[in-house]
Automatic annotation (TrEMBL):
Domain of life: Bacteria
Family: Belongs to the short-chain dehydrogenases/reductases (SDR) family.
Gene3D superfamilies xref list: NAD(P)-binding Rossmann-like Domain
E.C. number: 1.1.1.269
Catalytic class of the enzyme: oxidoreductase
InterPro entries: NAD(P)-bd_dom_sf, Sc_DH/Rdtase_CS, SDR_DHRS6-like, SDR_fam
Protein name (database record): 2-(S)-hydroxypropyl-CoM dehydrogenase
Signal peptide extent: none
Length: 260
């Protein structure tokens, strides 16, 4: 979805989006491209990377593969100003439902995946901050699960709580280097991931209607709406914003629609 309000505020900038071959990441990569950035997509399966982006293949659990993919992307783009750490996976259950191996795997993807990507990208972002001040940023896709206390999401929530704390700590570590670090907290976003969850229900259409009805706005947020928030935090217009979590949840976190 392109809007008349979009300018080319990323012109001359280079961006890397992890998990950019589907859902929120793909919408973000496409939006940054429309707004003038050169964009690379790092994904374990980059087939769905938006046309016009540079696809690089890596699983974020593999530090060597991430290092090679980031280097390839930076070579192709001629530098790096914007990192969007978005690759992530879900997990359903209480602490009694997920085995240690599942905990390790989800934390490996959702938390260490961001750490590995940032480690590989930071030398390039430092160069951006030194050569082209005001451009360097990292934006993570976190979740309202980081703060909300959602049922049946113990492992996923713990992973996103770690993403929120990691984001704040990184913002502190890199602020004097001129690298801003923020995150977005989507509520329920209508992406292929949610589609896969709905498909497991006996009546996916009825489940989708019920899920929409549970949202304060009456509908899930879209991947494009989350992408717009990520792009804002990554844009030069957000030069005064670091160490912030921006909710894109249709009011799920802030509103109490029933009297208490
Ligand atoms: P999605 O499944 O549509 O897309 C995720 C992308 O990440 C895919 O292209 C996948 O190949 C890639 N990926 C997954 N694991 C990877 C790995 N180990 N290495 C490399 N790439 C990998 O999901 P989405 O809904 O767009 O979710 C994107 C992010 O948004 C995730 O971090 C998720 O936790 C977060 N989020 C989603 C929602 C939601 O309701 N959809 C809500 C809150 C937060």
């Amino acid at each position: 979805m392109s809007t008349a309000l979009e300018g080319r505020d990323f012109a001359g900038m280079a961006a890397l989006v992890t998990g950019g071959a589907s859902g929120i990441g793909a919408a973000t990569a496409a939006l940054l491209l429309r707004r003038g950035a050169r964009v690379a997509v790092l994904d374990r399966d980059p087939a769905g990377a938006p046309p016009g982006t540079v696809p690089v293949t890596a699983d974020v659990t593999d530090a060597d593969a991430v290092g090679t993919a980031v280097a390839t992307a930076v070579d192709a783009l001629g530098g790096l100003d914007v990192l969007v750490g978005n690759a992530g996976i879900g997990a359903v259950g209480t602490v009694e439902d997920n085995a240690d191996a599942e905990w390790r795997h989800v934390l490996d993807v959702n938390v260490l995946g961001l750490v590995r990507t940032a480690r590989a990208a930071l030398p390039h972002l430092r160069r951006s901050a030194a050569d082209r001040p005001g451009r360097a940023s990292i934006t993570h896709t976190c979740s309202i699960a980081a703060t909300a206390g959602l049922p049946q999401r113990a492992l996923y929530s713990a992973s996103k709580g770690a993403v929120l704390s990691l984001t704040l700590a990184m913002a502190a570590d890199h602020v004097r280097e001129g690298i801003r670090v923020n995150c977005v907290n989507p509520g329920t976003a209508d992406t292929p991931w949610v589609g896969r969850l709905l498909d497991r229900a006996p009546d996916p259409a009825a489940e989708r209607a019920a899920l929409n009805a549970r949202q304060p706005t009456g509908r899930m947020v879209t991947a494009d709406e989350v992408a717009a928030a990520i792009a804002h935090l990554a844009s030069p217009a957000a030069s005064g914003i670091t160490g912030t979590a921006l909710a894109v949840d249709g009011g799920m976190q802030g509103l109490r629609l029933r009297p208490v």
